[in-house]
Amino acid sequence: MELLSVNVGRRTAAEYTNAPSGRTGIDKRPVHGPVRVSAPGAKGVGGSGVAGDEISDLRHHGGNDQAVYAYAREDLDRWERTLGRVLPDGSFGENLTTSGVDVNGAKIGERWRIGADLLLEVTSGRIPCRTFQGHLDEKGWVKRFTEGDAPGAYLRVIEPGEIRAGDRIEIVHRPEHEVTVGLQFRAVTTEKALLPRLLAAGDALHPETAERARRYLAVTRSH
């Protein structure tokens, strides 16, 4: 399991962004050399956990529970065949492009060691938005991406460190529950009845998703 590239983006103007500023950092490109990764701070204040990576819309992106976004090269390759176009590393706005990692099958709370020092923990899948659709310039992309059931994973930083392309990725902890990134993604998008099952992931679950699951459970119990 390997880190193929570390990708960062600078804020640029784009008419398709949801950010009030009309700017987005979704256009991420691979960088050479070591890159520092650390916890950025609470959502709404902290941006990306990856040094040199910029986020415009802090309401919906960034923060400690979405510090890093990882996507599998294998899934990018599949989308290349589906879309009939080249998708370089970073095309989906991911910070980490991986090889050999079952990103969508990763469990919430699963921990990855990358390089010598960095330790990350899986928190949730990525929910597609209008900015993502505009960036790719693919009609109906939000729906197509959702149906593709390969959201990639957000991760929080447990131990900061420096990483670079070619670093080994090691899964050092895999929880006993069965809540995967794929299950979490389906629960918050197309299969709401799955929401209560997400609570088995405990404190590792993204707090916004946990709150959504608790609200859903409370409503269903009241009926």
The secondary structure category is: alpha+beta
Q: Tell me the Rg in angstroms.
A: 17 Å
Helix content: 10-25%
In N-to-C order, the SSE pattern is: EEEEEEHEEEHHEEEHH
The count of helical stretches stands at 5
**Portion in beta strands:** 15-25%
Low-confidence stretches: none
Strand order of the largest sheet: 4-1-7-6-10-9-8-12
Largest sheet: 8 strands, mixed
N-to-C span? 46 Å
Molecular shape: globular
Global mean pLDDT: 95
Task: Describe the SSE topology.
Layout: E1 2-8, E2 12-13, E3 23-24, E4 29-30, E5 35-37, E6 68-72, H1 73-83, E7 96-99, E8 111-114, E9 118-125, H2 130-136, H3 141-148, E10 153-159, E11 161-163, E12 169-173, H4 181-189, H5 207-222
Parallel strand pairs: 6-7
Antiparallel strand pairs: 1-4, 1-7, 2-3, 5-11, 6-10, 8-9, 8-12, 9-10
Give keywords.
12 strands, 223 residues, 23% helix, single chain, alpha+beta, globular, 5 helices
Molecular structure report:
The protein has 5 helices and 12 strands. With 223 residues, the chain is an alpha+beta fold. The strands form 3 sheets. Strands 4-1-7-6-10-9-8-12 form an 8-stranded mixed beta sheet. The longest helix is centred in the C-terminal third of the chain and has 16 residues, at 207-222. The radius of gyration is 17 Å and the shape is globular. The relative contact order is 0.19. The model has no long low-confidence stretch (mean pLDDT 95).
